[in-house]
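Quick one, T. Sequence first:
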Amino acid sequence: MSKDAQAMDRLLELMARLRAPDGCPWDREQTPATLKPQMLEECYEVIEAIDSGSPEHLTEELGDLLLHIVFLAQIAHEAGDFTFADVATGIADKLVRRHPHVFGEAKVADAGSVVSLWHELKKAEKPERTSALDGVPRVLPALMRAEALQKKARNVGFDWPDPRGSLAKVREELGEVTAEIEAELAFAAADEAKFVAGDKTAEELGDLLFSIVNLTRHLKLDAEELLTGANDKFARRFREVEERINASGKAMKDCTMEELDAAWDEVKKADEG
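Structure tokens:
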């Protein structure tokens, strides 16, 4: 038996022991529903480990993710639904089925041809899916789901030919958002009421976000990563502003917006070199 097989068997045996009647009370109480938040958290921690570039960190986080897969498989095994072997066999069979150019006689010219072949085989395997958009989980983070839906639509020809169409759509949606906000501001001023964004403005802002994701996709960029980078940049600059304000003997809440804006501009200028 290989080292990998021995390690996998040991992990499966440990999980079964933890779920045994005389095992761990906490582990025995868990269900697929209670494990969902932790599974999602582990997936994000794997991504963070990939970004860190640390093999040690990635090794640890992949182990945590594998634990949750084994955990769910053990719960299913106890319920008589399926086993870990069923999971592993299922994905192995799928890999063979979806790679006839490797395990069969099919021929492909390049990576793009592989993707096209994959989609064709997947469609044939799932005849119950009647829409081109079927198969995109609603629970995906909104930016990722927007990109996934757009890629599905692209596969059937519903897409702009180049970034110009996407850019024009962004401008169009921005114009609609601007018009709605201006109208609501005017209405609030006339009625001497506090401005509150209405349902139409919210809808138009959603359309604008969706169109921006479409533009990033056409530019071969990832909206989730772009926003993550913007979040990191904002947090870094904001902390620098805090340090500068605190060093001056004042507190952020005691500063005027003009003072804070001036400090932000200084930090931004220094950050950009």
